[in-house]
Design brief:
3-stranded antiparallel beta sheet, globular, Transferase(Phosphotransferase), domain 1, about 190 residues, mainly alpha
Protein backbone atom coordinates (compact mmCIF):
# COMPACT_ATOMS: atom_id res chain seq x y z
CA UNK A 1 0.00 0.00 0.00
CA UNK A 2 3.00 2.31 0.14
CA UNK A 3 2.51 5.56 2.00
CA UNK A 4 -1.22 5.81 1.28
CA UNK A 5 -3.66 5.33 4.14
CA UNK A 6 -5.97 2.35 3.98
CA UNK A 7 -8.57 0.59 6.05
CA UNK A 8 -8.19 -3.10 6.73
CA UNK A 9 -11.44 -4.86 7.53
CA UNK A 10 -12.49 -8.40 8.25
CA UNK A 11 -14.65 -10.10 5.65
CA UNK A 12 -17.61 -11.30 7.67
CA UNK A 13 -20.06 -13.44 5.75
CA UNK A 14 -23.23 -12.87 7.68
CA UNK A 15 -26.49 -10.98 7.71
CA UNK A 16 -27.66 -8.02 9.71
CA UNK A 17 -29.91 -8.84 12.64
CA UNK A 18 -32.68 -7.03 10.72
CA UNK A 19 -32.28 -9.44 7.82
CA UNK A 20 -32.15 -12.49 10.11
CA UNK A 21 -35.44 -11.40 11.68
CA UNK A 22 -37.02 -10.83 8.25
CA UNK A 23 -35.88 -14.28 7.13
CA UNK A 24 -36.64 -16.25 10.31
CA UNK A 25 -38.89 -14.16 12.56
CA UNK A 26 -38.45 -13.68 16.27
CA UNK A 27 -35.65 -15.34 18.18
CA UNK A 28 -36.22 -18.25 20.55
CA UNK A 29 -35.54 -17.28 24.15
CA UNK A 30 -32.41 -19.41 24.64
CA UNK A 31 -30.82 -18.14 21.40
CA UNK A 32 -31.60 -14.55 22.39
CA UNK A 33 -29.73 -14.99 25.66
CA UNK A 34 -26.73 -16.44 23.81
CA UNK A 35 -26.78 -13.55 21.34
CA UNK A 36 -27.06 -10.91 24.07
CA UNK A 37 -24.17 -12.52 25.94
CA UNK A 38 -21.98 -12.34 22.85
CA UNK A 39 -22.96 -8.74 22.15
CA UNK A 40 -22.54 -7.64 25.76
CA UNK A 41 -19.06 -9.18 25.80
CA UNK A 42 -18.08 -7.34 22.59
CA UNK A 43 -19.40 -4.04 23.96
CA UNK A 44 -17.71 -4.67 27.31
CA UNK A 45 -14.41 -4.81 25.45
CA UNK A 46 -15.19 -1.63 23.49
CA UNK A 47 -16.07 0.17 26.73
CA UNK A 48 -12.86 -1.02 28.38
CA UNK A 49 -10.80 0.56 25.60
CA UNK A 50 -12.79 3.80 25.84
CA UNK A 51 -15.29 3.43 23.00
CA UNK A 52 -19.03 3.89 23.50
CA UNK A 53 -20.88 2.78 20.36
CA UNK A 54 -23.98 5.01 20.77
CA UNK A 55 -25.79 3.43 17.79
CA UNK A 56 -26.60 -0.16 18.73
CA UNK A 57 -29.54 -1.35 16.64
CA UNK A 58 -30.36 -4.47 14.62
CA UNK A 59 -28.85 -3.09 11.41
CA UNK A 60 -25.49 -2.61 13.21
CA UNK A 61 -25.30 -6.21 14.37
CA UNK A 62 -24.09 -8.90 11.97
CA UNK A 63 -24.85 -12.57 12.61
CA UNK A 64 -23.45 -15.71 10.97
CA UNK A 65 -23.65 -19.39 11.77
CA UNK A 66 -22.62 -20.93 14.05
CA UNK A 67 -22.84 -18.31 16.76
CA UNK A 68 -20.64 -15.68 15.14
CA UNK A 69 -21.63 -12.09 15.85
CA UNK A 70 -20.08 -8.73 15.04
CA UNK A 71 -21.03 -5.22 16.13
CA UNK A 72 -20.44 -2.90 13.20
CA UNK A 73 -20.49 0.82 12.45
CA UNK A 74 -18.67 2.39 15.34
CA UNK A 75 -18.83 5.74 13.50
CA UNK A 76 -20.83 7.66 16.11
CA UNK A 77 -18.78 6.14 18.90
CA UNK A 78 -15.48 7.25 17.46
CA UNK A 79 -16.18 10.52 15.66
CA UNK A 80 -17.72 12.77 18.26
CA UNK A 81 -16.70 16.03 16.68
CA UNK A 82 -18.99 19.01 17.25
CA UNK A 83 -19.47 19.51 13.52
CA UNK A 84 -20.69 15.93 12.99
CA UNK A 85 -23.00 16.04 16.01
CA UNK A 86 -24.56 19.34 15.01
CA UNK A 87 -24.96 18.22 11.39
CA UNK A 88 -26.73 15.04 12.44
CA UNK A 89 -29.10 16.76 14.82
CA UNK A 90 -29.86 19.75 12.55
CA UNK A 91 -31.15 17.51 9.77
CA UNK A 92 -33.94 16.31 12.04
CA UNK A 93 -32.60 12.77 12.29
CA UNK A 94 -31.87 11.12 15.58
CA UNK A 95 -28.22 10.92 16.53
CA UNK A 96 -28.57 7.15 16.69
CA UNK A 97 -31.04 4.32 16.10
CA UNK A 98 -34.52 5.67 16.81
CA UNK A 99 -36.41 3.34 19.15
CA UNK A 100 -33.13 1.67 20.10
CA UNK A 101 -31.58 4.90 21.36
CA UNK A 102 -31.41 5.70 25.08
CA UNK A 103 -33.68 8.65 25.90
CA UNK A 104 -30.81 10.54 27.53
CA UNK A 105 -28.79 10.31 24.31
CA UNK A 106 -31.70 11.78 22.35
CA UNK A 107 -31.88 14.62 24.89
CA UNK A 108 -28.13 15.16 24.83
CA UNK A 109 -26.57 13.97 21.52
CA UNK A 110 -23.05 14.73 22.78
CA UNK A 111 -23.40 12.38 25.76
CA UNK A 112 -20.74 9.70 26.04
CA UNK A 113 -22.00 7.18 28.59
CA UNK A 114 -21.62 3.38 28.34
CA UNK A 115 -25.08 2.98 29.86
CA UNK A 116 -26.56 4.24 26.59
CA UNK A 117 -25.25 1.09 24.89
CA UNK A 118 -26.82 -1.01 27.66
CA UNK A 119 -30.20 0.62 26.99
CA UNK A 120 -29.85 -0.02 23.26
CA UNK A 121 -28.86 -3.64 23.82
CA UNK A 122 -31.98 -4.12 25.96
CA UNK A 123 -34.12 -2.51 23.27
CA UNK A 124 -32.63 -4.83 20.64
CA UNK A 125 -33.22 -7.83 22.93
CA UNK A 126 -36.85 -6.84 23.44
CA UNK A 127 -37.22 -6.41 19.67
CA UNK A 128 -35.82 -9.80 18.69
CA UNK A 129 -38.08 -11.53 21.22
CA UNK A 130 -41.32 -9.66 20.55
CA UNK A 131 -40.95 -8.34 17.02
CA UNK A 132 -41.85 -4.86 18.26
CA UNK A 133 -40.12 -1.88 19.85
CA UNK A 134 -39.83 -1.36 23.59
CA UNK A 135 -42.35 1.44 23.95
CA UNK A 136 -45.40 1.65 26.14
CA UNK A 137 -46.35 0.53 29.59
CA UNK A 138 -46.98 -3.19 29.21
CA UNK A 139 -43.43 -4.26 28.46
CA UNK A 140 -43.25 -6.80 31.28
CA UNK A 141 -46.67 -8.23 30.45
CA UNK A 142 -45.65 -8.66 26.80
CA UNK A 143 -42.34 -10.27 27.77
CA UNK A 144 -44.01 -12.68 30.18
CA UNK A 145 -46.33 -13.86 27.39
CA UNK A 146 -43.33 -15.29 25.48
CA UNK A 147 -42.95 -19.06 25.68
CA UNK A 148 -40.32 -20.01 28.26
CA UNK A 149 -39.98 -16.48 29.64
CA UNK A 150 -39.74 -16.12 33.39
CA UNK A 151 -39.57 -13.20 35.82
CA UNK A 152 -35.77 -13.33 36.10
CA UNK A 153 -35.17 -13.01 32.36
CA UNK A 154 -37.83 -10.31 31.99
CA UNK A 155 -36.25 -8.35 34.85
CA UNK A 156 -32.81 -8.42 33.18
CA UNK A 157 -34.28 -7.09 29.93
CA UNK A 158 -36.29 -4.42 31.72
CA UNK A 159 -33.32 -3.35 33.85
CA UNK A 160 -31.47 -2.54 30.61
CA UNK A 161 -34.33 -0.19 29.71
CA UNK A 162 -34.53 1.67 33.03
CA UNK A 163 -33.48 5.26 33.65
CA UNK A 164 -29.67 5.53 33.77
CA UNK A 165 -29.41 5.40 37.58
CA UNK A 166 -31.54 2.22 37.76
CA UNK A 167 -30.04 0.60 34.66
CA UNK A 168 -27.04 -1.73 34.72
CA UNK A 169 -24.06 0.49 35.39
CA UNK A 170 -21.64 -1.52 33.24
CA UNK A 171 -21.59 -4.29 30.66
CA UNK A 172 -19.78 -6.40 33.26
CA UNK A 173 -22.87 -6.22 35.51
CA UNK A 174 -25.13 -7.19 32.62
CA UNK A 175 -22.80 -10.00 31.55
CA UNK A 176 -22.79 -11.38 35.07
CA UNK A 177 -26.59 -11.63 35.05
CA UNK A 178 -26.61 -13.10 31.54
CA UNK A 179 -24.16 -15.80 32.60
CA UNK A 180 -26.36 -16.59 35.59
CA UNK A 181 -29.46 -16.79 33.35
CA UNK A 182 -27.68 -19.15 30.99
CA UNK A 183 -26.55 -21.41 33.81
CA UNK A 184 -30.07 -21.46 35.33
CA UNK A 185 -31.71 -22.28 31.99
CA UNK A 186 -29.30 -24.67 30.39
CA UNK A 187 -27.34 -26.52 33.05
Amino acid sequence: MGNKPFIRMELFEGKSLNQVMKDHGRFPLNRSIDLMSELADALRYAHEVGIVHRDIRPSNIMVARPGKVRVIDFGLGIYLENELTSRLTKTGHNIAGGHFTAPELISNPKLIDPRTDIYSLGAVWYNILTGSVSAGRKLKEILLSIEGMNEDIAEVILKCLEDPEERYQSMNELLSDLIELKSDLFY
